Amino acid sequence: MPRVEPTDPDAPEPEADPGPDPTSESRAERKERTRRAILDAALALAADSNLAAISLRQVAKQVGVVPTAFYRHFGSLELLGLALVDESFRSLRLMLLDVWRHAPEYRDFIDGSLPIVAQHVRENRSHYAFIARERTAGPPRVREAIRQEIDLITRELATDIARSGAAEQYSSADIGLLADLIVSFVVTMAERLVDDPDAEERTLAQARTQLRMLLVGALNWRSREPAGDGSH
């Protein structure tokens, strides 16, 4: 039989195994943190120029990683730009659609949407500045992605207009034109807010008047061939 050692009553209790440190980052968390840092670095570096003027090495140096680490997250600067476009528009689309779908009257839409857009610009200024620059001066695929995102917002707004009772006098083509006018107006207003944040109050006052003029005209518009058969 094995010999059993006597237990010392004054001996301290053995420490329990603490297991894995709950505060330690997992590999996936570290990867996401690095990815986030790369996106933020690209936004910062492109702030004074545009995406085409910065290099992969600049971004990697800003983050503190080797260039090969960059490629584990993005295959190129253009793909990084596409990720920024997706990120920039995702919350904007959801925010605008929520405003439009909860504004039964055009006055509610104007008074409700403009302050929300202004707040969204304040909270995401670097993303709006990125979109304003890259939609005219960015790499071709990035410019095309921005155009597609704006087109998607326009189509979604057109669908909502078509479903409203006020759209009975419009043809499908005119509904699309109205949606395009509204979205183009909102994009222009956002760019003005980015360019001159100190003039926000004046920009919003002007935008409110301009949008009312636009929508008053739209409410009195009658298409030559209204889509009254439900096809719109």
TrEMBL record:
It comes from the Bacteria. Residues 55-74 bind DNA. The keyword DNA-binding applies. GO terms for molecular function: DNA binding. Residues 1-33 are annotated as: Disordered. Residues 7-18 have a biased composition (Acidic residues). Keywords: DNA-binding, Transcription, Transcription regulation. Residues 24-33 have a biased composition (Basic and acidic residues). Residues 32-92 form the HTH tetR-type domain. The keyword DNA-binding applies. It holds the Pfam family TetR_N. This is TetR family transcriptional regulator.
